[in-house]
Design brief:
The protein folds into two domains: about 120 residues, Rossmann fold, CATH 3.40.50.2300; about 90 residues, Arc Repressor Mutant, subunit A, CATH 1.10.10. The radius of gyration is 19 Å and the shape is elongated. The chain is of the alpha/beta class. The strands form three sheets. It has a five-stranded parallel beta sheet, sandwiched between helices. It has a four-stranded antiparallel beta sheet with strand order 6-7-8-9, with helices on one face. It has eight helices and twelve strands. It starts with a strand and ends with a strand.
């Protein structure tokens, strides 16, 4: 299974160059040109590493990572930027960046740093939470597996499932779900919770996730 990398870069030529090079080395790349577009992708999909330019439209790379870290996302992140002053370097690490590459750079250096960071992350890649004999959650990579086969669920589905499984047998209130699934700057959508619950019921069955009317849900598998 190839690693999935989100690349945030507003220079079209550089973005395409990085994709061509990294795809050729076995990585699956998702390309975005603005911070808000990157944020949308991260809330809908799961990635193993972020490769982030800082100076991008809508929301710069620093603010983008700050938003994700506040939401509990610990995906490894590398900043790739022309900024080279010590204050900017320090800010990147304080906000949760794991590495820094200064432009201009050598593509082989990017590859080596990606490999090194993913290798360090392997220490938590096998952090599993079993649901039953068939289903398991990979907590580090935020993936759901059934008998070693990865199932396609989005990040919100995963976070909700993790919360339900962790509190198995107990009622998970709507307030607990809001706190787990949405950051302080995100707009909470009550209808979305029902969508995520229905997505999980399609996998585990309607009887497994019990609706406690007006309060929340209980996972009974």
């Amino acid at each position: 299974m190839s690693y999935k990398i989100l690349i945030l870069e507003d220079n079209t030529l550089l973005l395409q160059t990085l994709e061509d090079f990294l795809s050729g080395n076995g990585y699956e790349c998702t390309l975005v040109k603005s911070g808000k577009e990157a944020l949308k992708q991260c809330y809908e999909h799961k990635f193993d590493l972020y490769l982030l330019d800082v100076k991008v439209p809508d929301m710069n790379g620093f603010d983008f990572l700050k938003e994700l870290r506040a939401a509990g996302d610990r995906t490894p992140a590398i900043f790739v930027t022309s900024l080279n002053d010590q204050e900017s370097l320090a800010k990147g690490f304080i906000l949760g960046g794991d590495d820094y590459i200064k432009k201009p750079f050598d593509l082989e250096e990017v590859l080596l740093r990606i490999k090194a960071l993913l290798a360090r992350a392997k220490g938590i890649v096998d952090d599993w939470l079993s649901i039953d004999e068939a289903y398991k959650l990979n907590l580090a990579r935020k993936r759901l597996f059934c008998n070693k086969e990865e199932l396609d669920i989005n990040l919100k589905d995963f976070e909700l499932l993790y919360l339900l499984v962790k509190e198995r047998g107990n009622v998970v209130t709507k307030e607990m779900i809001h706190e787990r699934l949405w950051s302080s700057s995100e707009e909470i959508n009550e209808g979305s919770i029902r969508v995520y619950i229905n997505n999980l019921k399609k996998i585990f069955g309607k009887e497994v996730i019990v609706n406690i009317r007006g309060i929340g849900y209980r996972f009974e598998k």
